[in-house]
C-alpha cells in the first residue's frame, strides 16, 4: 500500500467516534433526549496500546453476582459459527453450549472481561470500557439471547485520575448508574443484577451492597441528579440501582419461545428449568397470582469475579467463591458480525372493554463495536449533571442542552411512583382506600418504545427520552391488575408526571373490579375519565377517546368523573361489591357506565345519590344504636316543592339536646333534605329551567352546611368510619354543586 493510500485510510473506530450519535437514541443504555439533537462531542481516536493495557489493568473491576445468578461473563467465541460467509454467535449455540460447558466443568466457563479504549482528540480525556458478555438475559419483560453490559471509566491522562464511572442500566429509557470523581486508589466494583446483568456501582465501605443515598457514614454509590419535580420523590437519585439490594421484591418470569418454556426447545438439550433463575424468585406470568408475592428472597452475594492478575481481599472475605477472569481486548472480537437468535417476546395486559394484550418483541443484542457509544462513550452519560460537569472540565465534551444542564434540572421524559391500593382503617369496612408503598417492582410499557421499563427504588418510574406527543402508558405487576392511561408529553415541559400527582396505585387481582366506560350510547363525547375514592382521593385520571376501562379496588367507594369535548363535567357514583370481584376473570361482570352524562343535571344527580347513600347508612347506624329520642323540634324539610326552593325551614335547626342519638337523627334528616333539593335541581336542569336549577343548587349548599353542623354534633353517636366517610362525601358534594353552578350545560 502506498503512502498516499495510507493517508486516505479511515479507521472504523475513528469514524464511530466522529459520527457517534447517529441512531444513538436506539442504543441500550444511552438515554438521549427524544429529540434529534446529538451532542457535538469531539472525535475520538484509539489509545496508545501500552496506555490502554495499563488503564485496563488498573481499572479492571471486581464483579459481584447474586447467589442465584446462572449466567456469568464469558467468551462468546466458542459459540461462533459461519453463516453466509460471516462469523456470527448463534443464540441457541451460546445458550446451550454455555450450560453444557458449565455442567461439565462445575464452574463458570471461560471467565472473561473485554476492554476497549478511546481518547478524545486534542484532550487529556480518555475512556477505558469493560464489556461483559453473558449467554442469556432473563428479566421478566425483556429477556433475550446474548447480553452485553459495559462499564465506562473516564480518565484524565494528564492527572492520571478517574473522572466518572458509568455502569450500564436496562435500556436507553432508564438512566445509567454513574459516579463522579471516584477514589483514584480504589478498584471499581460492579454489582450485577440477577438475570439481567444490569450493572450498578459499589464505592461505599460495604463492597457487595448498593447504597442509593449516603447515610450512616456510608457513601452513596451513585451521584446522579435527583428527582425534584414530584413531591413524593424529592431527592431520589435518578438511576436504576439494584432493587433487590434495596429491600424490594423483584419477580422473574419464565421465558417462552413459540408458546412453550424455552428450556423445552429441542435445540437446547443442555438447558433445563434449573438452568434459569431460581424458581423461588420466578412467577409463571405476571397475571398468574392473585396478589403481589411477598416471599421472594432479597439479594444475597454468591460468586465474585476479579482480574486474574490482582488480589482482592474484600472479595475473598465477602463472596462465597472468587473466580479469576481474563482481560481480553475487544478488538479480538471485531470479526464477529452479529449475535443472532429468533425473537423472544413478552405480553403486557392492557385494560380494555375487552381485555387486550400488547406483545413486545425483543431482538438479540447488537454488536458493541458497531454502536456509537463504542466510539464516543460520552453518549452513555445519562445523568445530565455529569455531562455538564465533564463539559465544564473538557472542551471535548459538548454541554448540549438536551443532555446537560436542562437534563440536570429535570428529566426529558415520564416520571411517577407506583404504589398499591389497600383498604383504609379510617373508612367504613369496604368503603374507602389508602395507598401504601409497593411490595414488588413493576414494569412499565410506553407505546412508543418496544422495551419495558422496570421500576426501581420501590416503585419509581422513570422513562427518559419519550417523544413529544400523545402516548399510552401501561403498568403491569405480578399479582396485580394492569393500569393503563393516556398522557401527553410536551416539548415545553422537561418532565411529564404520570398517574395522579405522580402516583399510580395498582390493585391486587383478587381485589380488583373493572369499571368500563363507553359513550357509544350517550349524547356526549367523553375525552377524559377519572376515578376518585372517598378516602384516597383521585386515583386515576386519563385522556380517553370515548371508552375506557379501569381496575379499582373492590373495597373502595368511588366517584366517576368524565369530561366531554366542550370541557363540561359529569359525575356518577360507583360502589363495587367488596364480596365479589368484577374483573371478569371468575365470571363476575364488570361495572359498566354505558350512558355517561355531563352538565348540571348529572352533577346534581350525583349529589342526590351520594347524599342518599350516606343518609341510608346513617339511618342504619341510628337504628342499630337502638335509640330515637327525637323531640320533633328539628324539622329540616316540610316536604313542599315550591319552585323557589323554600321548604319552610328557617335554618334555626331546633335543638339536639337529646344526646348523640338525637344528633344522629338530625344528621339523617339534614341528609334527606339535601337529597330532596338535589333531586329537584336535577329535575329543573333536565327541564331546561336554568333559574330553577340555580335556586335549588343554592338550597343544596344550604343543606350541606346544615349537614356539617349536624355531623359535628353527631360524631359521638356514629361509628368513626361512617363519621369520617360522611365528612369526605360532604366535601365531594360541595365541590360537585359548585361545578354544577359553573356549568354552561344543564
What report would you give on this structure?
Strands 1, 2, 5, 6, 7, 8, 9, 10, 11, 18 and 19 form an eleven-stranded mixed sheet that branches. Strands 23, 24, 27, 30 and 31 form a five-stranded mixed sheet that branches. Helix 9 runs antiparallel to helix 10 (660-686), helix 10 runs antiparallel to helix 11 (690-714) and helix 11 (690-714) runs antiparallel to helix 12. The chain has twelve helices and 38 strands. 22% of the residues lie in helices and 29% in strands. With 746 residues, it is α+β, with helices and mostly antiparallel strands.
The termini sit apart by 87 Å
Number of helices: 12
Task: Tell me the number of strands.
Answer: 38
**Averaged pLDDT, please?**
86
**Uncertain residue ranges:** 1-36, 402-410, 626-641, 644-656
What is the alpha-carbon Rg in Å?
31 Å
- Binned, the helix content reads 10-25%
Biggest beta sheet attributes: 11 strands, mixed
Question: How does the overall form come out from the CA principal axes?
Answer: elongated
Nutshell version of this structure?
The chain has 746 residues and is α+β, with helices and mostly antiparallel strands. Helix content is 22%, strand content 29%. The longest helix has 27 residues, at 660-686.
Secondary-structure topology with pairs:
Elements (H helix, E strand, L loop, with lengths): L2 H6 L3 H8 L24 E3 L2 H11 L2 E5 L13 E4 L2 E5 H15 L6 E9 L4 E13 L6 E13 L5 E6 L9 E4 L8 E4 L6 E3 L24 E2 L8 E2 L14 E2 L2 E2 L2 E2 L20 E2 L17 E7 L5 H6 L2 E9 L6 E5 L3 E7 L5 E7 L9 H4 L8 H10 L11 H5 L3 E11 L9 E5 L5 E4 L6 E2 L5 E5 L4 E9 L2 E10 L5 E3 L5 E4 L5 E7 L7 E8 L3 E7 L3 E7 L4 E7 L4 E6 L16 E3 L6 H26 L34 H27 L3 H25 L5 H23 L4
Parallel strand pairs: 2-10, 4-20, 5-19, 14-17, 18-19, 23-30, 23-31, 32-38
Antiparallel strand pairs: 1-5, 2-18, 3-4, 5-6, 6-7, 7-8, 8-9, 10-11, 12-13, 15-16, 21-22, 23-24, 23-27, 25-26, 25-28, 28-29, 32-35, 33-34, 33-36, 36-37
Amino acid at each position: 500500500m502506498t503512502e498516499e493510500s495510507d493517508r486516505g485510510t479511515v479507521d472504523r473506530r475513528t469514524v464511530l467516534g466522529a459520527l457517534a450519535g447517529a441512531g444513538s437514541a436506539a442504543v441500550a443504555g444511552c438515554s438521549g433526549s427524544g429529540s434529534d439533537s446529538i451532542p457535538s462531542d469531539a472525535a475520538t481516536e484509539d489509545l496508545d496500546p501500552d496506555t490502554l493495557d495499563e488503564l485496563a489493568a488498573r481499572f479492571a473491576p471486581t464483579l459481584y453476582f447474586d447467589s442465584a445468578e446462572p449466567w456469568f461473563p464469558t467468551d462468546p467465541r466458542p459459540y461462533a459459527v459461519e453463516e453466509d460467509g460471516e462469523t456470527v454467535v448463534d443464540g441457541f449455540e451460546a445458550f446451550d453450549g454455555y450450560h453444557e460447558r458449565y455442567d461439565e466443568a462445575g464452574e463458570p466457563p471461560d471467565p472473561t472481561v473485554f476492554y476497549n479504549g478511546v481518547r478524545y482528540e486534542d484532550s487529556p480525556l480518555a475512556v477505558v470500557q469493560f464489556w461483559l458478555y453473558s449467554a442469556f438475559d432473563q428479566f421478566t419483560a425483556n429477556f433475550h439471547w446474548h447480553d452485553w453490559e459495559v462499564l465506562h471509566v473516564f480518565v484524565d491522562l494528564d492527572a492520571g485520575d478517574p473522572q466518572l464511572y458509568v455502569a450500564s442500566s436496562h435500556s436507553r429509557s432508564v438512566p445509567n448508574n454513574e459516579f463522579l470523581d471516584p477514589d483514584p486508589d480504589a478498584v471499581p466494583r460492579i454489582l450485577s443484577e440477577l438475570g439481567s446483568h444490569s450493572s450498578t456501582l459499589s464505592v461505599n465501605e460495604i463492597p457487595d451492597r448498593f447504597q442509593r443515598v449516603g447515610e450512616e457514614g456510608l457513601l452513596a454509590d451513585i451521584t446522579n441528579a435527583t428527582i425534584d419535580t414530584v413531591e413524593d420523590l424529592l431527592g431520589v437519585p435518578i438511576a436504576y440501582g439494584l432493587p433487590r439490594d434495596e429491600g424490594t421484591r423483584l419477580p422473574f418470569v419464565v421465558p417462552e419461545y413459540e408458546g412453550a418454556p424455552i428450556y423445552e426447545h429441542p435445540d437446547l438439550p443442555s438447558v433445563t428449568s434449573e438452568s434459569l433463575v431460581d424458581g423461588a424468585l420466578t412467577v409463571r406470568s405476571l397475571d398468574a397470582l392473585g396478589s403481589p408475592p411477598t416471599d421472594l428472597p432479597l439479594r444475597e452475594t454468591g460468586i465474585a469475579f476479579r482480574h486474574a492478575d490482582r488480589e482482592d481481599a474484600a472479595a475473598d472475605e465477602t463472596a462465597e467463591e472468587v473466580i479469576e477472569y481474563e482481560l481480553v481486548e475487544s478488538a479480538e472480537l471485531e470479526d464477529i458480525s452479529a449475535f443472532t437468535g429468533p425473537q423472544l417476546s413478552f405480553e403486557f395486559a392492557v385494560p380494555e372493554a375487552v381485555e387486550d394484550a400488547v406483545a413486545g418483541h425483543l431482538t438479540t443484542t447488537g454488536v458493541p463495536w458497531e454502536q456509537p457509544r463504542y466510539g464516543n462513550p460520552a453518549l452513555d452519560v445519562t445523568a445530565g449533571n455529569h455531562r455538564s460537569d465533564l463539559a465544564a472540565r473538557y472542551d471535548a465534551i459538548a454541554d448540549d442542552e438536551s443532555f446537560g444542564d436542562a437534563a440536570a434540572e429535570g428529566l426529558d421524559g415520564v416520571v411517577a411512583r407506583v404504589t398499591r391500593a389497600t383498604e383504609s382503617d379510617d373508612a367504613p369496612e369496604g368503603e374507602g382506600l389508602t395507598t401504601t408503598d409497593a411490595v414488588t417492582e413493576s414494569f412499565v410499557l410506553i407505546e412508543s418504545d418496544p422495551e419495558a421499563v422496570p421500576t426501581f427504588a420501590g416503585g419509581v418510574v422513570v422513562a427518559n427520552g419519550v417523544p413529544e406527543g400523545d402516548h399510552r402508558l401501561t403498568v403491569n405487576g405480578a399479582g396485580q391488575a394492569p393500569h393503563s392511561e393516556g398522557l401527553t408529553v410536551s416539548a415545553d415541559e422537561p418532565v411529564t408526571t404520570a398517574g395522579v400527582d405522580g402516583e399510580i396505585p395498582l390493585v391486587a387481582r383478587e381485589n380488583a373490579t373493572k369499571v368500563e366506560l363507553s359513550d357509544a350510547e350517550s349524547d356526549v363525547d367523553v375525552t377524559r375519565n377519572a376515578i376518585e375514592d372517598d378516602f384516597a382521593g383521585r386515583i386515576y385520571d386519563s385522556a380517553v377517546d370515548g371508552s375506557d376501562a379501569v381496575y379499582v379496588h373492590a373495597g373502595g367507594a368511588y366517584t366517576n368523573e368524565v369530561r366531554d369535548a366542550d370541557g363540561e363535567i359529569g359525575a356518577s357514583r360507583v360502589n363495587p361489591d367488596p364480596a365479589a370481584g368484577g374483573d371478569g376473570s371468575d365470571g363476575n361482570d364488570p361495572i359498566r357506565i354505558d350512558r355517561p352524562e355531563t352538565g348540571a343535571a348529572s352533577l346534581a344527580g350525583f349529589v342526590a345519590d351520594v347524599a342518599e347513600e350516606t343518609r341510608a347508612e346513617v339511618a342504619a347506624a341510628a337504628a342499630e344504636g337502638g335509640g330515637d329520642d327525637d323531640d320533633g323540634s328539628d324539622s329540616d324539610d316540610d316536604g313542599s316543592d315550591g319552585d323557589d326552593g323554600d321548604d319552610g325551614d328557617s335554618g334555626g335547626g331546633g335543638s339536639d339536646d337529646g344526646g348523640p342519638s338525637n344528633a344522629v337523627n338530625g344528621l339523617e334528616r339534614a341528609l334527606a333534605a339535601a337529597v330532596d333539593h338535589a333531586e329537584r335541581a336535577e329535575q329543573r336542569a333536565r327541564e331546561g329551567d336554568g333559574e330553577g336549577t340555580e335556586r335549588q343548587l343554592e338550597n343544596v349548599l344550604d343543606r350541606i352546611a346544615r349537614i356539617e353542623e349536624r355531623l359535628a354534633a353527631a360524631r359521638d353517636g356514629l361509628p368513626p368510619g361512617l363519621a369520617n366517610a360522611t365528612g369526605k362525601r360532604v366535601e365531594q358534594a360541595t365541590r360537585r354543586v359548585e361545578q354544577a353552578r359553573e356549568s354552561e350545560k344543564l
